[in-house]
Amino acid sequence: MFFKKGFFLEGVAGCVEHTTTQWEMLQHAKRKSQQIAVAWLDLENAYGSISHMLVQFSFKWFHIPQSISELVFRYYDSIFLKVVTDEWSSEYFHLGIGVPQGCTASTIVFDLCFQVVLDIWKWVSRDVNPRYSIGDGHNISFSCPTYADDVKLIASNAPDCQKSIDTFQCALEWTRTLRAKPTKCRTLAFRLFRRKEKTEFKQVLATSYSSFDPLLKINGVSIKFIGDDDPPIFKYLGRHLQYDLKDDIITNQVEEKIRKWLQTIEDTPLEGRMKAWIVNMHVCAKLAWLLMVQNFFNKDVQRWNDYIHTKFRKWIGLSKSAEPSILYRSNEHFGLNFKNLMQMKKQLELTKWHILKYSKDEHVQQTYKYRLSLDQKGHIGRGNKTSPCLTLENLERDRALERYSGTGQHGRRGLGFKSKYRKVEPREAIIERAKRDAEEKRMTVLHQYEMQTAWLSSGLDNMMYCDLSWKAILNQYSSRLLKFLVGSQTNTLPTPDNLRRWNLNRDATCGLCGQKWVTLSHVLAGCPW
Fold first, then answer.
1. N or C: which end of the chain has fewer CB within 10 A?
2. What SS3 string covers 393-419?
3. End-to-end CA distance of the chain, in Å?
4. How far apart are CA 470 and CA 412, in angstroms?
5. How far apart are CA 180 and CA 168, in angstroms?
6. pLDDT for 359-408, tens place per residue?
7. CB burial class (10 A; 0-12, 13-18, 19+) of residue 477?
8. pLDDT in tens, 51-107
9. What number of other Cβ atoms are within 10 A of residue 209's Cβ?
């Protein structure tokens, strides 16, 4: 098991693993009505508080070759600083503390030094052994998941969590330079409160199983309870956590941001296609991480997507009666390939659970198996037909089948078959399969339309190629030309037959050649005039 994560080259997605296991752990405690206490600790100037002697000790502790130790020692020993102001300047002085953050070796050096602190904490707290375990046939336990200098101490009750904090403070004092920053530390605890129970802890929620302030301290200073913040939310490694394990406050904040971003873009003096590009490339990208790590309800994400969809239709000039999938279909199917938040959420959740399934951390792998077992028992959330874990398992089975499928030979190639399998990264193949399934659903819906999808009768292979990439949209098409292109493909242009159909004209006769019931194809390429 990786005891500390952060700044590794590959294979360790620390933020995703820590935030997901944290959520599953809190949900397990809530489901079983078990007591749990969590403390998030932050250090004061962590990089700048690593002494150079601690660096040398860490190198010896982890058996780093002597040549590397001497190289780093000479490098750090040659760092001198000088303070220059408008009124005075100091002499050069030797810097004996701090890891230079501009150096490429700083991250791994900090990892080694801080791992020593965690090793000391583990040894000192061996008698208490504070941790929270998930049973149910799964050997999962967490005590001190750490990412860089972001430390999270977990215990099955508040007293054990306090002992864990005290031992961690002892490890910090051993270094003589590292110290905690209590103002940025936070705590959260849950337990089952019984009626008329006398306890030093105050029940916060109206339910019997409630969060409470565990009254934890570090170095004699009280650590603030998340519920006392305004709003009562704590952000850890990019994931927001409410004091009651709900998402209503976080959802409202995200929705307010989306509305603000869209209004800001709307007020700019840019053309519609440019505004659409900003939303598609930047706003959706800013939402991607939240869609991955947060557990938003589908109805909330769909509402946000409706906000963006309304703007897309307006900026592109899509008719009110036009079939909307043209915005999200791939360019191969004559769509604009805009991003859909619901599809993004599904793909990012698949990515998240794929990371956990094939993690190098055994406890993280067990967390995936635990979540999968719950999903297989039907614990997938009210109103949900499936879950990311179940979808991932189905997609992997489909991919395994594709590896052995092939096509029969034809022509003069003789008997046998030809394999269609192409070696790609597993996660890439899973996401591509999910995209293909979403695309097939959009294409299936098209067959319900008779007028707007007449182009399908010609067959996709016989259609003339149309460049609808962002490069073409921004550089080759004007706003009016793009609106005409989209309208012609969905057959929503004011052609004579459509004007007659909309009761805006008495007949549908061509004003040039006199042909009756003039369609779009006649206007574009059929009129002899």
1. C
2. HHHHHHHHHHHHCEEECCCCCCCCEEE
3. 77
4. 43
5. 10
6. 888 888 999 999 999 999 888 876 688 899 999 999 888 887 777 665 55
7. middle
8. 999 999 999 999 999 999 999 999 988 888 899 999 999 999 988 888 887 888 888
9. 17
Q: CA–CA separation, 406 vs 421, rounded Å?
A: 8
How do residues 434-477 score in pLDDT, each as one tens digit?
998 998 888 888 888 877 777 666 655 656 677 788 888 888 88
**Which tokens in the block code for residue 100?**
């230079």
Give CA separation, 42 vs 37, 147, 236, 381, in Å: 17, 11, 11, 34
Strands (DSSP E) found in 443-501? none
Is the Cα dihedral 268, 327, 430, 142 positive or negative? positive
Closest of 166, 195, 200, 163 to residue 180, by C-alpha: 166
**Distance between CA atoms of 527 and 509, rounded to whole angstroms?**
12
Degrees (nearest 5) of the Cα angle 354, 358, 362? 130
347 Cα distance to chain centroid: 10
pTM of the model: 0.88
Distances (CA, A) of 91 to 88, 98, 304: 10, 19, 58
Cβ atoms of 427 and 354 within 8 Å: the answer is yes
